[in-house]
Amino acid sequence: MTERPHLAVVGAGPAGLAGALAAAARGVRVTLVDAAEQAGGQFYRQPAAALGARRPQALHHQWRTWERLRDGLERHVDAGRVTHLTDHHVWCVEGESGAFAVHALRGPAQEEGVTVRADAVLLATGGYERVLPFPGWTLPGVVTAGGAQAMLKGGLVLPGRTAVVAGTGPLLLPVATGLAAAGARVAALVESADPKALVRRAPVLAAQPGKLAEGAWYSGQLVRHGVRVLPRHTVVEAHGADRLEAVTVAGLDRDGRLRPGTARRIPCDTLAVGHGMLPHTDLAETLGCTLSGTDVRVDGEQRTDVPGVWAAGETTGIGGAALALAEGHIAGRSVAARLHGTTPDPRRWATASRSRTRLREFFAALDAVYTPPADWADRITDDTVVCRCEEVTAEQVRTAVDTLGAGDVRTVKLLTRAGMGWCQGRICGPAVAGLTGCPFTPGRRPFARPVPLGVLAALPEQETD
Amino acid sequence: MVGAACALYAARTGLDVRVVDRGPVAGGTTGAGEGNLLVSDKEPGPELELALLSARLWAELAGELGASVEYEPKGGVVVASTSGTLDALTDFAAGQRAAGVTAEPVDAAGLRELEPHLAPGMAGGVRYPQDAQVMPALAAAHLIRASGARLHTGRTVTGVLRAADGAVLGVRTDQGDIHAPAVVNAAGTWGGDLAALAGAHLPVLPRRGFVLVTEPLPRMVRHKVYAADYVADVASDSAGLRTSPVVEGTAAGPVLIGATRERVGFDRSLSLRAVRALAAGAIGLFPFLERVSALRTYAGFRPYLPDHLPAIGPDPRVPGLYHACGHEGAGIGLATGTGRLVAQALTGKTPDLDLGPFRPERFEATAPPGTNGDNNR
Amino acid sequence: MNPWELAQARPGAAFTVTFDGRPVEALPGQTVAAALWAAGVTSWRSTRGAGRPRGVFCGIGVCFDCLVTVNDRANQRACLVPVRPGDVIRTQEGTGRDDD
């Protein structure tokens, strides 16, 4: 029993679960380390058990898939093949092939350190939402689209009565329909892209009939709930003194610039806004994995370029739950073969591999269509707070660039403190890059989350060599 | 930072100055520094003299540049946990006083008054009012701006242009030549490479150091605080003050925890072991930090020379080449004095300090035959 | 329709916590943020610079905008921390820590 090779999976979303199940079924001892109280990640986020939701599927898509994952996990846990560590927040993974240490903080308080040792690591750390600033975006009542969804799925709560859902990207559809189904009045769905552009990519779309059906279903739901859709529109400003009261939206022309005379004010108490997703890559970067743009680079087996470290799901590139499942499955099978000292045969996962190829193409097409409007950075007024943690304004960033000679995000950070606060630039990073006029690159964060100094000081000697 | 200070003082003598950096402003060790302006950690000798000169100049500049560089003359407090350590510290401070440092003995009750959150049971300490702090990246950016020098960032020096007689004519960069009769090497950790481009041996080596940054806090740490830990049983020749990490609050809120001296020994490759030692040292001084979160840690490369003194002044081997690098962990603090000395050398004035101990050619005997210095990148 | 009906939730018995001294009903399984939202509260932090109100933003523990003081422990992410009977929840001012 104890001789079985040991895999630590970080993240219990679709990718991590698929990877854990695939590896556990092939003779690998798996420890699944996850921050949430229940498995599922963001996509399959569940209401807390104590809320007694008897029909959680009403908040979800692809419930069957989830049931299969959930039941599989339960079987492996019961059989002792998988240890599921809930409420474990991983802040650093160190080591090398055959000897990794996964350092986590336990419980909601995150004041107690735990270290899991493993022969190999699968990073399935998921992603988070990108939000680009606009005047008023720090007002209470303005939340990320994913945040509104997470609070609904996990806590069965709505932030208010009347919502506007805005930004760009495929996430906005389920958020708008979800909020509407749960009883919010969704005053508008404001999408800066022109979904008609998707038609031009028909071949890629046609290869994904499931995705087309999904899109059609959401459109039907929008109609059913009377949600007004405003394509090629953007939120120009959020209004309110201490709380959101309304938003001004305006139309965009073909080049993504504001169309004069199209501004209109929509009263609302909630704005759910998002501009796509970004992967969590901190753990991978600290381990020394090479990134490709914002994504962890992996090979056909989902291996990173650091021996013993695999990655799957959003962390290797945003592509949704179905892609994450395929990648996680391939990763788990590869891990099992490699830890048993054999070379895996990719033909064994040909189905997952085909679906991975198609879904990556599909999301590349979506990505090309759902882009923020061209001059979003220019529309950020000088007095708009860009770094929410350190309250750094757009003017301060512009001064650092224009008069102090900063030309990159790191120098702007040093000169303005943008990105030095609690969130370590996760939220403001893309905005600062845009204002600085340079491409967004993920910052280096040796600590993937804040760590109490007492936990650092108490790290056991042998685990920090 | 050192380059920025050289630019400022050189420009103020009337010279036309251009600053060339392959990266951004403060992109090297400056951006990873804490901004310590310390006299407290230096034993009597040339480095301390340079530190005292620099401290005076920093105070002058702070008056001029205002709050933009976040200069804080907060003072340093060195604490001793045992009476034996306190005796050693007191002796050390007496020597510093003789060299012109203000060093005030503080008893246990006095320590509590200076630092209410300090761990109980300390034997005593010494207060150094001349210790101060700047925000290094802001300081570098604002000094360059104040100098009026032309700034070429993102431009890499690929060669040093020299006349037939060996005299410097300027630098070659990846974006064209810049002609100048004098070139100042303020390349910090990479100063050895730049010297090598001019055919001069200067063994600057990188030494890694770490800083831990906490969540923002109110002013719970008021000075720069570190512990003296005298190890009496070390062979007397090499005995020295070992120090804990420096713990200090900042204007922006976070507490910085960092090693400031070569002897602290946090210089190995990036590892949690170093971070653990920083955290443990800081909690030993300020127990409340145990439940405070570290938001980040980062590493920087200290540029050091074998005798732990910087190279400052003209290089007799290459007429027209001046050096201002190798300040180890003290480059921010020593930048102003260095800039002043380099400016004086450039204009043929008598320097405020004897440049003898900082002579760049002092390592000539160790130069590997037929090589151009160290290329440790 | 509301989220409870939609998911056919049958939560356990409600309990009371306080927010800035006033009683708030909460349900087992809710996070502090969910309980406050359900009570119509959307801000529970005042920034340390401009003193501006903040509440939930990302909802998944990434942005740290929802920091709140619970039972005298500052800097708790309201979107992650489960609410417990008797919790004393306070608006977090600035760093959430006193300087004495």
Automatic annotation (TrEMBL), chain A:
Alphabetically sorted, this entry's keywords are: Oxidoreductase
State the CDD domains in the record.
GlpA-like_Fer2_BFD-like
| A Pfam family assignment | Pyr_redox_2
- UniProt keyword Nucleus present: no
BFD-like [2Fe-2S]-binding domain: from which residue to which, for each copy? 385-433
> FAD/NAD(P)-binding domain: from which residue to which, for each copy?
6-327
Q: What are this entry's molecular-function GO terms?
A: oxidoreductase activity
Which superkingdom heads the taxonomic lineage of this protein's source? Bacteria
- What protein is this chain from? FAD/NAD(P)-binding oxidoreductase
UniProtKB/TrEMBL annotation, chain C:
Question: What SUPFAM superfamilies does the database record attribute to this sequence?
Answer: 2Fe-2S ferredoxin-like
GO molecular function terms noted in the UniProt entry: iron-sulfur cluster binding; oxidoreductase activity
Q: Does the keyword Cell cycle apply?
A: no
Which of UniProt's keywords are assigned here? Oxidoreductase
Which InterPro entries does this one have? 2Fe-2S-bd_N (IPR042204), 2Fe-2S_ferredoxin-like_sf (IPR036010)
Q: What is this protein called?
A: Proline dehydrogenase
Source organism lineage? Answer: Bacteria, Bacillati, Actinomycetota, Actinomycetes, Kitasatosporales
